[in-house]
From TrEMBL:
Residues 92-156 form the RNA-binding S4 domain. Part of the 30S ribosomal subunit. Contacts protein S5. The interaction surface between S4 and S5 is involved in control of translational fidelity. It comes from the Bacteria. Keywords: Ribonucleoprotein, Ribosomal protein, RNA-binding, rRNA-binding. HAMAP family: Ribosomal_uS4_B. This is Small ribosomal subunit protein uS4.
Length: 201
């Protein structure tokens, strides 16, 4: 299973955002990594700014370059505003939905839950993190997986009204993907227009 295996905290400090979840390293050192991390002279070219935004989106949703490019190309073929469709496709990934429903604290944990066959979609076990969840789909945990400590701890700190396009039932460990979110509802700090400009060159 292809995924990023490098240092997470350096990436979080590079973008100055906790894109992998809460980061004590970022709190201690709220500046970029390396000997030039504290430098005030961080002027970047237009291309560098666009590339950084694409890299941030990739790391946030846990995709590699080819996966992300394929998702972008799929978004360009669909009706609607490409930037919004791209974010909707990323939000519809099963690993992301499991994370948003509160079954895992991070997308990495959600990816692991999915690949280890703990997740059920509409009554069928699905172990593909990139599986595209559709509006109306019901996501739950397998009966034997409902009392996993990881899931229990994640749900304890989860607010069921956090995302308008999802519905979570903590007691039954089930959730529902109600509809595709609009761009304004997605909490990630990603400027998709910069990504579109980068790929349009």
């Amino acid at each position: 299973m292809a995924r990023y295996r490098g240092p997470k905290q350096k990436i979080a400090r590079r973008f100055k955002e906790p894109i992998f979840g809460p980061s004590t390293a970022l709190e201690r050192k709220p500046y970029g990594p390396g000997q030039h991390g504290r430098s005030r002279f961080t002027r970047k070219s237009e291309y560098a700014v666009q590339l950084d935004e694409k890299q941030k989106a990739k790391y946030t949703y846990g995709l590699l370059e080819k996966q992300f490019r394929n998702t972008y190309e799929k978004a360009t073929r669909q009706e609607g505003v490409t930037g919004e469709v791209l974010l909707q496709l990323l939000e519809s990934r099963l690993d992301n939905v499991v994370f948003r429903l509160g079954f895992a604290r991070t997308r990495r944990q959600a990816r692991q839950l999915t690949s280890h066959k703990h997740i059920v979609v509409n009554g069928q076990v699905v172990n593909i993190p990139s599986y595209e969840v559709k509006p109306g789909d019901v996501i739950s945990l397998r009966p034997k997986s409902k009392n996993l400590q990881l899931v229990t701890e994640a749900l304890e700190s989860y607010s069921t009204s956090k995302y308008k396009w999802l519905e979570t039932d903590k007691k039954s460990r089930t959730g529902k993907f109600l509809n595709l979110p609009v761009m304004e509802e997605i909490p990630e700090n990603i400027n998709v227009q910069l990504i579109i400009e980068l790929y349009s060159k």
